[in-house]
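G.,

No rush on this.
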Amino acid sequence: MALPNSAIIKVANVPNAGVAVLTGTTIGTLGSNTNGTTIYTAGANGGRVISLTASTNDTVAINTFVYILRGGSTVIPVGLVNIPVSSGNTNAARFVVDFLNGINIPGLPIDNTGRQYIPLMPNDVLRATTLANLSGGTSAFIMANGMDYSA
């Protein structure tokens, strides 16, 4: 199907990334924006998160609620992911947790490479919170990489 002459193609080609640090003060509740920490903010034309990984130096597993905050008040749940003990932080648990591996957050769209991604509307904010206290002095680190759409 050919596009009309007036069509403007939007391509996700503007690199964007972010990191959230979750600590003992980021305890929230499912379905709310309570104590959420920003991981990634989409651009003015929207975007897509193509990589979302987490690591921790905590000695207990961490349940992490990931959601999109739209318009400053609407919470759109993406998923609840468990970050196992010391993920990505020790030789015994050297791998980070891949949130977009097709298992941790099922039902997301799949791109032409077979990978899941999180689609974001203009100015959407991808956020996360923990559901319980982290051990004293420990943190979880969530890193997002993506592309924003250009006009």
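When you get to it, here's the other one too:
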Amino acid sequence: MSLLFKALADDTRLKIVYSLAKEELCVCDVASILGTNVATASHHLRLLRNMGLARQRREGKFVYYSLSDKNLGALMDSALKHIRDEE
């Protein structure tokens, strides 16, 4: 569990996981969402994949990422609900 929260403690990876909870994205889409280059997005996606939080699918020259577990999306929704309820 500590590895999960360590991964989510980084703002960039948190944004990626939140985005992937909504839909499957290619690396270029993730880079656009983050406002960074493809290399940076790819680095963070690789870390998430190596931690078992994301999975990849190759289609031609594009690599698409999604969450490896739908419960991670539910965790994100629960955390957001908690934050909004406190405001």
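The chain has a mean pLDDT of 93. The chain has one domain: 2-86.

Enjoy the weekend,
O.
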